[in-house]
Amino acid sequence: MTKALLLIDIQNGFCPGGNLPVADGDAVVAVANRLIETGGYDLVIASQDWHPANHGSFASQHPGKKPFDMGELSGQPQVMWPDHCVQGTLDAEFHPDLHVSRVDYVQRKGENPDVDSYSAFRDNDKSALTGLSDWLTSKNVTELDLMGLATDYCVRFSALDAIDMLPGVKVRLIADGCRGIDPNGVEQALAAMADAGVEIIESSHIVS
Ligand code: VGL
Ligand code: ZN
Predict the structure, then answer these.
(1) What's the CA-to-centroid distance between 149 and ligand 2, angstroms?
(2) Which ligand approaches the C-alpha of residue 10 most closely?
(3) Domains and CATH numbers, the chain
(4) How far apart are CA 94 and CA 12, in angstroms?
(5) 1 C-alpha vs ligand 1 centroid, how far in Å?
(6) Can you tell me whether residue 5 is helix, strand or coil?
């Protein structure tokens, strides 16, 4: 049995003060650190949203669009985001309090300007893989717990892909380790993940 913890996008950009702040986003850092230190995981993975400055998910790349408008990218409806998590900027760095020295593997994503990649496993058009599923398989991971930012986007897409792409692996979402962008989206995300077979738990179930 190999247990892995997947920390989704715990970056400055998604925390208060960042370019795409999630309300109370920095509250997940303490949960992550507690799990890293005392959760009994064999492996810790962190995903990192890592966009070029001209990324197609940015409203700034679409004349006439404002942040949070709807647009299109890679043939799919796409939320037009504020510029965020640009490669090499402070906004893209992990939250400074996150225990990154304990992270075994960092999975960057969102580098192709022509498609978004909410999931840590593959682009939104489901074509290019990031490599994370192969890495987890090569480590014989049998249980994957995930948490982070944002519940209704990258956490949701990552959890659903974990179910699809890692058959036989038990996938759990640590709900108190997540914060979301839109309250309705969070409700829908939790329902979609539960429907797909993700077990929804609290970190108190693992550590005290
Ligand atoms: C995310 C929107 C755009 C996320 C990333 O981490 O949930 N959301 N890029
Ligand atoms: Zn992004």
Answers:
(1) 11
(2) 1
(3) 2-50+86-205 (3.40.50.850)
(4) 6
(5) 31
(6) strand
Q: Which atom of ligand 1 is nearest to the CA of 9?
A: 6
Q: At which residue do the structure tokens 């480590």 appear?
A: 139
Q: Is the pTM of this model over 0.90?
A: yes
Cα 160 to the chain's mean position, in Å?
11
Residues with CB under 6 A from ligand 1: 9, 14, 49, 81, 118, 149-150, 153-154
Tokens for 141? 């991971």
- Residues classed as catalytic: 9, 109, 154
- What digits encode the pLDDT tens for the residues 86-140? 999 999 999 999 999 999 999 999 999 999 999 999 999 999 999 999 999 999 9
* Per-residue pLDDT band at 208 (split at 50, 70, 90): confident
How many other CB atoms sit within 10 Å of the CB of residue 70?
9
Q: What are phi and psi of 18, to 5 degrees?
A: -85, 180
- Residue from 119, 208, 114 nearest 164 by CA: 119
- Phi, psi dihedral angles at 122 (to 5 degrees): -165, 165
- Token readout for 169 is 């692996």
